[in-house]
Amino acid sequence: MDPNQKRAKAVDRVDSVDTGAASSESTRMCPFPDEVLERVLSLIGSHKDRSSVSLVCKDWYNAERWSRRHVFIGNCYSVSPEIVAARFPRIRSVTLKGKPRFSDFNLVPEDWGADVHPWLSVFSTAYPFLEELRLKRMAVSDESLEFLATNFQGFKALSLLSCDGFSTDGLKAIATNCKNLTELDVQENGIDDLGGHWLSCFPESLSSLEILNFASLNSEAPQLMELGTGTFMQELVSGPVTELKNTFSNCKHLVTLSGLWDATPLYLPVIYPACARLTFLNLSYATLRSIELANLLTHSKSLRRLWLLDTVGDKGLEAVGSCCPLLEELRVFPADPFDQEIFLGVTESGFVSVSRGCPKLRYVLYFCRQMTNAAVATIAQNCPDFTHFRLCIMNPGQPDYLTKEPMDEAFGAIVKTCTKLQRLAVSGLLTDRTFEYIGKYAKNLETLSVAFAGSSDLGMEYVLGGCPKLRKLEIRDCPFGNAALLSGLTKYESMRSLWMSACNVTMNGCRELAKEKPRLNVEVMKDEGSDDSQAHKVYVYRTVAGPRRDAPPFVLTL
Amino acid sequence: MDRKRSSLNLFEDIDLNYKATELRLGLPGTDDQPEIKTSLSGNKRSSSEMESSTCTDENESRSASPTKEQVVGWPPVRSYRRNIVQGKKESSEMGSGMYVKVSMDGAPYLRKVDLKMYRSYEELMEGLQKMFKCIIGLYSEREGYNGSQHAPTYEDKDGDWMLVGDVPWEMFITSCKRLRIMKASEARGLDDSL
């Protein structure tokens, strides 16, 4: 096998393979009949492994494409629905992600794109038996939801995370028409809650529903007993706790629990009976204080994942450290992110307490108003298995509050000690040194988020020159310019995407990148009434679909 | 009523001049800063960003004071999540905090306290004393806060400044808009009418 052939991009293969025709070459490498190969390959689940498999040779490529049931598209503009349908004839499940992540924080104008409808149109003919659709940061209209509900007879599972453009009317269509629905997961979406009791649109005979998650919606007072889900719920998310009293005592199988917005001290004991088996508890919409949390946690020793609001304070986190030895994931959200005068919330001390009691921590998202290098170094020592470390010191460019030094050593400690680190978000006052550490030590890093950091182009250059597994880089408000941007010339095609906003990149720099790398889409979003030579928001991504055909006027593809 | 009138007189002449005690990292003399939305010029981050506060949504009606800057999309909290928690605070009485600003003469930072966390004046005083590391002492009907260096005052619904402890606790927490811990010498002006 020519090793160069192995390295050839998937692009070439897509263009050269006929739809539906099995390959029968005279130079057949593979001794197995296609059916056997397909059967074996069907056991491979991970899409990364499947990608590798497809690159081995033409036979394996074909066997893989026929046996694939789930396709994961991390950037909806990296490929077109037609190309996907041509390559994979037998898909049952699609995961599709759209807008750049910073759109969650209002950095991307509305009508930017990522409309799911063109995909649904193609899928309705290519995959009429589609069963699952998982969308993240896509624009989804009620019409699209209705189209989905009426064109896919066996449809079973819908998950919408951080999407926008639809209302409860769209959910009504799903509830009414999808007779085989097992999962409906609607979370953190920009949704129009028109009320209207869409929940009651589920047919009474619906016994298949296993996962029901509608934390997006306040107005529904769920009549869960009527849904017939009181006896078997794997995952339950809802609103008013009082209505769920009976449900909880019947729930033998409850393993995750979210919501609890009205959880006042009076009502919390209602869920105690269900807590012993809980592995995931999402309290990030409940303004609990430390004592309330501590009481709750004494019943929840099996917790693996915990989401909180920082109203629980450092004392609450001490309770986490003492009660949850199996904890693998902790997310602490700020109750008042925009009020700088509140000196509440959590500090470095709470984080250290958790790290002491929970050595198995791998995933942390932590919002705080003060941090020290020493604390983070201790945390790294206590929890060397971090795969995801996202620290947000909420005041931009804030130094170690005790030593007044930059937070470079904190993140240095993390990347040096936590060799399995895949995702990192940095904050606080940072010089280029932080990025030198990252480039040098973070060998498994795939996603990096940077804001208000760095001193010069070197910072970004260090990262692009190191980090062999980097896939997503998102940067805002940093002093990185054209030299930094162009230093990644050879790297961007191996990455999913690059985002740079409010940096020092110019239109000329972007044009040069676009010229050198025709297989990348280099998109610049223009702000009205500002300097035309500056590139305010730059989004660069690899694609086999060419420039976007649906780009709005404010998006320039260079 | 006399007391109220004297408190008005007291504050007419004094320019509270919070700006003088406001801790900033900008150069002295720099006032209103422009919004940060455009890209940075040069490599060094300008000091004006260091103090930026955050307000991403025009709907956000609370807090944003006019002299602070606005940084779009920071901290990185999804709008959805932000709206839920704000909505909770503004809707029901139960479980939501009653935050009021507290300033102390001579201290550089304003603080905030949640009045719902306390059930009496004693508890509130204890909390304030811990927060500002000062001694306030107890209120007495006759002598006010004599005998201590500091006296707590509050601005009520009508905009008048009153000595804390005047009215029953329940009435106090519903009418108190902000707190100020004054130097005892200045606060004596409030009591002069006795």
Task: Give an overview of the whole structure.
The complex is a heterodimer of chains A (558) and B (194). With 558 residues, chain A is of the alpha/beta class. Chain A is built from 20 helices and 22 strands. The two termini of chain A are 38 Å apart. The model of chain A is unreliable at 1-27 and 216-239 (pLDDT under 50). Chain B has helices spanning 2-13, 18-21, 79-91, 121-132, 169-175, 184-191; strands spanning 99-104, 111-114, 150-155, 161-163, 178-183. In chain B, strand 1 (99-104) and strand 2 form a beta hairpin. The model of chain B is unreliable at 1-15 and 29-68 (pLDDT under 50). Classes of the chains: A alpha/beta (558), B alpha+beta (194). Chains A and B meet through loops of A and helix 3 of B.
What labels would you give this structure?
heterodimer, A: 558 residues, alpha/beta, 20-stranded mixed sheet, 20 helices, globular, B: 194 residues, five-stranded mixed sheet, 6 helices, 5 strands, 29% helix, 13% strand
Principal-axis shape of chain B equals: elongated
Q: Would you count the extended β strands of chain A for me?
A: 22
Helix-and-strand structural type of chain A? alpha/beta
Give helix % range of chain B. 25-40%
Describe the oligomeric state of these chains in a short phrase.
Answer: heterodimer
- What fraction, in percent, of the residue positions of chain A are helical? 25-40%
Low-confidence parts of chain A, pLDDT < 50 over ≥5 residues? 1-27, 216-239
> How would a textbook summarize the main sheet of chain A?
20 strands, mixed
- Uncertain residue segments of chain B: 1-15, 29-68
How many separate helices of chain A?
A: 20
Describe what is shown at a glance.
The complex is a heterodimer of chains A (558) and B (194). Chain A is of the alpha/beta class and 558 residues long.
Q: Topology, pairings included?
A:
The complex is a heterodimer of chains A (558) and B (194).
Chain A: H1 3-7, H2 10-16, H3 34-41, H4 47-54, H5 58-67, E1 70-73, H6 81-87, E2 93-97, H7 117-126, E3 132-136, H8 142-151, E4 157-161, E5 164-167, H9 168-177, E6 183-187, E7 190-192, E8 211-213, E9 235-238, H10 245-250, E10 256-259, H11 272-275, E11 280-282, H12 290-297, E12 305-309, H13 313-323, E13 329-333, H14 348-357, E14 363-368, H15 373-382, E15 388-393, H16 408-417, E16 423-425, H17 432-441, E17 447-451, H18 457-465, E18 472-476, H19 482-486, E19 497-501, H20 507-516, E20 520-525, E21 537-542, E22 555-557
Parallel strand pairs in A: 1-2, 2-3, 3-4, 4-6, 5-7, 6-8, 8-9, 9-10, 10-11, 11-12, 12-13, 13-14, 14-15, 15-16, 16-17, 17-18, 18-19
Antiparallel strand pairs in A: 19-21, 20-21, 20-22
Helix pairs in contact in A: 3-5, 8-9, 12-13, 13-14, 14-15, 15-16, 16-17, 17-18
Chain B: H1 2-13, H2 18-21, H3 79-91, E1 99-104, E2 111-114, H4 121-132, E3 150-155, E4 161-163, H5 169-175, E5 178-183, H6 184-191
Parallel strand pairs in B: 1-5
Antiparallel strand pairs in B: 1-2, 3-4, 3-5
